[in-house]
Amino acid sequence: MTVTREAVEAVLRQYTDPNLNQDPVTAGCVRSIDVVGDHVSVQIELGYAAGLFRSGWAQMLAMAIEQLDGVTRAVVQVDCVIRSHKAQDQVEALANVKNIIAVASGKGGVGKSTTAANLALALAREGARVGVLDADIYGPSQGIMFGIPEGTRPEIRDNKAFIPLEAHGVQVMSMAFLSDDKTPMVWRGPMVSGALLQLITQTAWNDLDYLVVDMPPGTGDIQLTLAQKVPVVGAVIVTTPQDLALLDAIKGVEMFRKVNIPVLGVVENMAIHICSNCGHAEHLFGEGGGEKLATQYNVELLASLPLSMAIRSQADAGNPTTIADPESQIAMIYQQMARSVGARISQSGQIIAQSMPNITVSDD
Fold this sequence. Notes:
By secondary structure, this protein is an alpha/beta fold. Helices cover 32% and strands 23% of the residues. It folds into two domains: 5-81 and 352-362, Fe-S cluster assembly (FSCA) (GMP Synthetase, Chain A, domain 3), CATH 3.30.300; 97-347, 3-Layer(aba) Sandwich (Rossmann fold), CATH 3.40.50.300. An eight-stranded mixed beta sheet has the order 8-9-5-10-4-11-12-15, with helices on both faces.
């Protein structure tokens, strides 16, 4: 029986990429389909970092194609190619940075910085080149979370640019690296905004696929300046289920909408507490708040994370959960969150035009 291109495509359409929520044909990921006698070769290109996902995805699709009559062998190659995406109009791109992701919250204390650190580390585990910019001037914490010793200073290149520090395979830059950890930044808003913009533009990032920006909490002058001056491709909103936190998170969503930055999704922290002694589960801060917020604004609930001592203690020790316990259930939630964030960016309306698939069929 002759194997046709249409038959191979029909098989591929039956399988949904859980990160894109589409089959590879509809998502435009199929780059080529080659049929040579009873052998089929398929090349698929994902526009997001998926190093822990792609081999299993390739194997699943290959096994499905081999179920076709007339096919004795199928090979599916899945590559991840991360491209730059257009940010806000009239905002210049950042040198050597393809995509900038803002991690924000309407209020402090909801786990925004912990989420930013684990998102960056999870993206790196998926094979991306990642950096973290700690934009929380008044309460910088990324240095601690990445285990960078107090007093460590970045090198300066040609008296013009800071060389970001590196920890756990991620490039890290923070105002905390340029000041005394015990000295508070007693600055007014314009001073902070100017210092941050200088830090952003004068850091020599080394060929990043993603730069994760840990934004200050709130929606004031500093946040607005960053949103308008930094080429952000999308924002992740962090909240807890508590009604007060959700009210502030709504303000964060509205702020990004006003400056035309897509909201990639919502992360709900402290969603549930499970007693370590008796196993009783309790929603200490309310239930379903993150999902309601995501539904209200038609965005994805990227993750719902428990109130866990491990998340806190591992971050405090400079070894966040994603790398401290990479096979744990919580780490897997962070990995899925990272793939979903990358996938949302690749699907955004600002995506660079893709080339058409190259499909060939041969009877040789």
